[in-house]
Amino acid sequence: MLTVSGAAVPASAQDRAKELEGLRDRIQDSRERVTSHEADERALLEQLEDVDRTLMEVTREREAARREARDARQRLAELEPGVERARSALVATQKALASRAVALYRGGELGPVRVLFSADSLPEMLSRASALRVLVRHDAKLVARFGEERDRLETLQAAAAVALEERAAAQTKLSRVASRLADERAGKREILARVRRDRTSERQLLLELEQAAQALEETIRSLGARAAESGSVAGSGFGARQGRLVPPVRAAISEPFGKVVDPEFQTTTFRSGIDFAAPGGAAVRTVAGGVVRFAGWFRGYGRIVIVDHGDGFHTISGHLDEIHVKVGVAVEEGESLGTVGETGSLGGPSLYFELRQDGRPIDPEPWLLDARG
């Protein structure tokens, strides 16, 4: 409502329409800011886990596309020699038919008759008739063989054309999936780069990692308590094997246990385990017999497997790609738990490994045989 000299004057319909349009714009802007704020406020570990899950999905798609492309190339490679052999056989048969056609042309239409009746005796005539029958059968076989070889060549060429199309389609699919995988990895790198640029984000990530470590500790304590109550604690004598456990993966230790000071930000964190510089896909094995208590996603650690070795000892293998075991299954020393991946990792493929006694993290390195390898 507008006022002039203190008197109230109704606003025009046009003014009210503009005011309403402006109000709608402000409401929309407010909604967009709230949505953006909510996205920014999402937990960093949650964002990273979403990216990791998508990366795993796209990686599986890429492997499937690679297999399709490889199979298509193999089918084409198997068909090509057959096509070439069929083509060569057809050419040879064509030459033989051409030679017979020339011979028949030179003999003329009455050539066989002259050959037959120019014999000096009946036995010779019968012999020549037999020879002519052989030639006729030979020519008939040549014609039949030509038709068969032509059909075989056409069939093989058609199969090769299909295989060629399948190879092209598989290669296109592989390129598309590889591009999507690169985009997802770039998204993860951007999140991590933002964390490194922004001190607030960096502190948020450190806090979330500490909370994740506490959650893991509580989970292990809970698993140990339930196992003790059920009387199904796996194994015994684990504590006597210090220095004699075979490392879970064939790789050098890249990050040690204990206090870690970030060289750029000078922040201090505590690493409850060790990192192995293992390539993606490398086999991860259990260091001792036990029972699988957990196998799946755990925020901050990616995909993990927790093995209960008895006497209050548990091992945790994190950042896994594939998981080869299920909860409740007994595993023997050296049995495969899964493969190295980069789920939950902030620095690419690696194996994160923890050893805990009664829920408390202890340095795994003194327990491992030639851990520095």
Shape, please?
A: elongated
Q: Which CATH C-level class of the largest domain is it?
A: Mainly Beta
**How many H/I helical runs?**
5
What is the number of strand segments?
14
**pLDDT < 50 runs, ≥5 residues:** 1-11, 30-41
Main sheet properties: 10 strands, antiparallel
Report mean pLDDT, rounded to a whole number. Answer: 76
How much helix, percentage-wise, in residues? 55-70%
Count of the separate structural domains: 2
CATH superfamily of the largest domain: Glucose Permease (Domain IIA)
Per CATH, the architecture of the largest domain is Distorted Sandwich
Order of helices and strands: EEHHHHHEEEEEEEEEEEE
CATH topology category name of the largest domain:
Glucose Permease (Domain IIA)
**Percent of residues in β-strands:** 15-25%
* First and last CA, distance: 82 Å
Rg from Cα: 39 Å
Question: What assembly state would you assign to the polypeptide chains in this entry?
Answer: single chain
How would you classify the helix and strand content by structural class?
alpha+beta
Question: What is the strand and helix layout of this fold?
Answer:
Blueprint: E1 2-4, E2 7-9, H1 13-41, H2 44-107, H3 111-117, H4 122-197, H5 199-230, E3 253-255, E4 258-261, E5 268-271, E6 274-276, E7 283-285, E8 290-298, E9 302-310, E10 313-323, E11 330-331, E12 336-340, E13 351-357, E14 360-362
Antiparallel strand pairs: 1-2, 3-6, 4-5, 6-13, 7-12, 8-9, 8-11, 9-10, 10-12, 10-13, 13-14
Helix pairs in contact: 2-4, 3-4, 4-5
